[in-house]
Amino acid sequence: MIQSRFASRWWILAACGIYLVLCAVAIAPGSGLQYDEALMVLGGAQMRNSPAILPLPQDPDTWQCVGGRCFPLMTVRYVGALKEYLAIPAMALFGTGAGVVRAVGVFWAVLGVYGIGRMFGPAPALLMAVSPSLAGHTVFDNGAVAGWIGALGLVCIAVTRYGEVPGATRAFVAGVTLGLAVWARANFLWIAAAGAVGWSPGLIGWVRANPRHVGLVAAGSVVGATPFLIYQAVSGFGTFEAVGMFSQAGSWTDRLGPRAAMWAESLVCGREYRSIWGGGPVPQWQVFFPAVVLVLGWLWSLRKSGAARGAAVALAIFYGFLFFSRLPVAEHHFVPALPLAAAVAALGWTAAPRLVALAAAGLYTAVCLSWHYQAHAGLRATGGIGQWSSAILDVKQHLESKQAGRETRILDWGLQNSLFVLSDTRLRTREDFDSHWGVAVGQGGLFLTNSASGTFFPKPYGGFHRALALAGYPVEPMVFRERTGRIFAELWDLPPSPPRFAPPKFAKLEAGNPAHGAQFVGVHEIEQGVWRWTRGRFALLFPAQSGARTLTVDLHVAASVISRLGPVTLSAWAGEHRLNPETFHGSADYTFQRPVPEGAGDPLAVHFALDRYLAAGAVDPRELGLVIKAASVE
Questions:
Q1: Among candidate residues 263, 18, 28, 31, the one with its CA nearest the CA of residue 133
Q2: What angle do CA 61, 67, 72 make, to 5 degrees?
Q3: pLDDT for 154-190, tens place per residue?
Q4: What does the alpha-carbon distance between residue 573 and residue 607 come to, in Å, rounded to a whole number?
């Protein structure tokens, strides 16, 4: 343990306060609850409302039932259910809003700031507190980062207390925190192994001098990891089975470049966080400056002894796991290294002239605060983009108020978990990715999917729309939009037994030919004898053909659309196959030409969807998308 001459619990508490304020700034704009973010608290919502097992899909054996009450051991095979239990009192007091879910993670992760401060002094805690990446990945916690950070802080607190006054009780408690940390996130073993090697000289001496305390730490670890160990027993080592399920192809040199970029950006504001509001790239100097500061701090720390050298070795080993592992590594995996990185930078830079060290710290803080400002402004303007969009709240509100009691079939990834938590388990939903879509459409019901440009699973989306087109449905779903105006989700309320058109006859369609009208679905009447306006979603039907086929659509993007909406993107599906989209930046004639994959369907239904279009009443009583002139499949 080290205590610099500036160390003070008040400074550590101040760091915790700064971190909490900056997290509150990120929470305040009210972005939506992302699917995996909701996954981390599904059990909390379920246990609060029902003794039954979670009705949504879950990994095998992660839930167990005893005496008529079911509870989770793990959220997924390698993430424990700790956050799900922590969420229960917060949800009971404040509801299941996205802000409440995020506050649970933040108030757990603040232990990381406090624990690092207790172990290494206030300077590393202050560096952690201002980090946009740390705040972003613990607020928007879709990667279970808050569990890592909070567990690390808890271990640091327990180990520090033991180091101050060694004793049997404190040794046992330290062991409990280690076991709890492994349950919270099995990858914590990477940090634990790195720390054990980094401080191995002192650790070996302690083991030899304190065999009784070593036993108490081991016993405490078993107690803390009890849910994790029970899960391994009932699942046949499900966590280790999960490790074997994931492997990234290619050599380590192929992985090194992308991982180095993720590492460098994670020291400031990584792209995973920026993508939530569509933030721009980090300037190159802001990427290199923190990386150089950290490398210099690491080199200086290696030249020291004790805590500084141990932290440097531990950080190198932890980064070694991340850079060279064949397991898939994302940016959020680098964020749990930030506490060690902050400690190494702070301890190492004590070797530099004080004014130089203060200048570097001041510049880093200024860069971080600028990104916090950009994040707040971007989140306030957009409400979150894509799966983070606040539009999920509109979907939830509509289903609760207008469709209460009805089951909603969800045809794409990214919606069900969020709606389950936000509605406090009230909504009835079912993910449906593999139905016979002609039968499903004929039966009718509620169908919910992401926008055309935001689909994750193209096959069910394309199959559903092919069935709609062949059934002759007018393409008029209820649309939910992001604050930016882009479509977030579409809800279809279909009556049973829809009408069906006669089989399509013509492979070449002319918009001005009345005989071809039945093969235009979601398209308005002929204008000036040669063209038609489409709606925001429309479809074209073509007869069965053999051999390779190419789709060609002649269309026009009107000035009234571009001037009001800006660039528009056209997405398309041939049957269940997604075609490459195209973005139109100006008013002009265009030819949309794409190869049609084999097996796209005979007869062929091609479904189109615009990410932006003119709503009915904007410039015309009708909904207006593009102007279509002709189309063919040959």
A1: 263
A2: 30
A3: 999 999 999 999 999 999 999 999 999 999 999 999 9
A4: 5
Whole-angstrom Cα distance, residue 616 to residue 501?
A: 26
**What is the sign, positive or negative, of the torsion defined by CA atoms of 404, 409, 415, 418?**
positive
Give CA–CA dist 338/496, Å, rounded: 55
C-alpha–C-alpha distance, residues 544 and 532, integer Å: 24
Contacts of 368 (CB under 8 A, 6+ apart): 130, 131, 132, 268, 269
Look at residue 340 and give its three-state secondary structure: helix
For the residues of 365-420, what is the DSSP string, one character each? HHHHHHHHHHHHHHHHHHS-SGGG-THHHHHHHHHHHHSTT-EEEE-STTSHHHHH
C-alpha dist (Å) from residue 2 to 116, 121, 194, 535: 11, 7, 19, 67
- Gap between the Cα atoms of 90 and 88, Å rounded: 6
pLDDT digits (tens, 9 = 90+) for 342-371: 999 999 999 999 999 999 999 999 999 999
Which residues pair with residue 531 across a beta bridge?
527
Q: Identify the CA nearest to 203 among candidates 212, 216, 214, 191.
A: 214
How is residue 111 written in tokens? 């232990």
Exposure on the CB side of residue 67, measured as CA atoms within 13 A: 0
pTM > 0.85: yes or no: yes
What 3 state SS string does 158-202 have? HHHHHHHCCCHHHHHHHHHHHHHHHHHCCCHHHHHHHHHHHCHHH
Look up residue 167 and give its two tokens: 């004793």
Asked if 268 and 282 touch (Cβ cutoff 8 Å), the reply is yes
Decide: 314 and 362 in contact? Cβ < 8 Å.
no
